[in-house]
């Protein structure tokens, strides 16, 4: 059995008047991610983990921020596009584990919805996807509520 592990990391500043999106799920909050696309920090970290595991590049390379085609893009479309590329390379997703780091909003009340959204986009059971929230203990830009970060790790299996 051939296995590959991948890691993804992302960070976006938070700004008023923007939706706070995690895997396409909108969390009620005064601020949201600033970015060329919709800024969905979790969708980006997951996409990079999948691409990294399959050695197929990274999202900055495949979807350049300078390309107007990706302005205000739905990052879940981008994630589905990435998963098609990875799956076409003969890979199945064994599991995905993620951390979202922010002072607010609380992730736990929305965790199951976020897990279901990721599982649906990647065509796996919800049990293969996990997401947890962490604060930065009031330290640094994440702790001051100026930004939101996400880390993702995935395991792929060759089919
Ligand atoms: Zn991003």
Q: Topology, please?
A:
Layout: E1 3-16, E2 20-22, E3 25-27, E4 31-33, H1 41-54, H2 59-62, H3 75-88, E5 91-101, H4 111-122, E6 129-134, H5 140-143, E7 147-158
Parallel strand pairs: 5-6
Antiparallel strand pairs: 1-4, 1-7, 2-3, 5-7
Helix pairs in contact: 1-3
This protein binds zinc ion.
Describe this structure as you would to a colleague.
This protein is 30% helix and 33% strand. It has 159 residues and is α+β, with helices and mostly antiparallel strands. The chain has a single domain, classed as 2-Layer Sandwich (60s Ribosomal Protein L30, Chain: A). Strands 4-1-7-5-6 form a five-stranded mixed β-sheet. Strands 2-3 form a two-stranded antiparallel sheet. Helix 4 (111-122) links the parallel strand 5 (91-101) and strand 6. Helix 1 (41-54) packs parallel to helix 3 (75-88). The radius of gyration is 15 Å and the shape is globular. The chain starts with a strand and ends with a strand. The structure holds zinc ion (ZN).
């Amino acid at each position: 059995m051939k296995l590959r592990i991948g890691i993804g990391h992302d960070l976006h500043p938070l700004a008023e008047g923007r939706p706070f999106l995690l895997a396409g799920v909108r969390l009620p909050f005064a601020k949201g991610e600033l970015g060329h696309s919709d800024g969905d920090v979790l969708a980006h970290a997951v996409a990079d983990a999948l691409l990294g595991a399959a050695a197929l590049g990274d999202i900055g390379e495949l979807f350049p921020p300078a390309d107007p085609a990706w302005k205000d893009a739905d990052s879940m479309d981008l994630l589905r596009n990435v998963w098609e590329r990875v799956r076409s390379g003969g890979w199945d997703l064994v599991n995905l584990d993620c951390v979202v780091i922010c002072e607010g909003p609380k992730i736990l009340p929305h965790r199951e919805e976020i897990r279901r959204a990721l599982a649906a986009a990647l065509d796996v059971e919800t049990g293969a996807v996990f997401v947890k929230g962490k604060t930065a203990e009031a330290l640094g830009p994440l702790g001051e509520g100026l930004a939101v970060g996400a880390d993702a790790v995935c395991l792929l299996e060759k089919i």
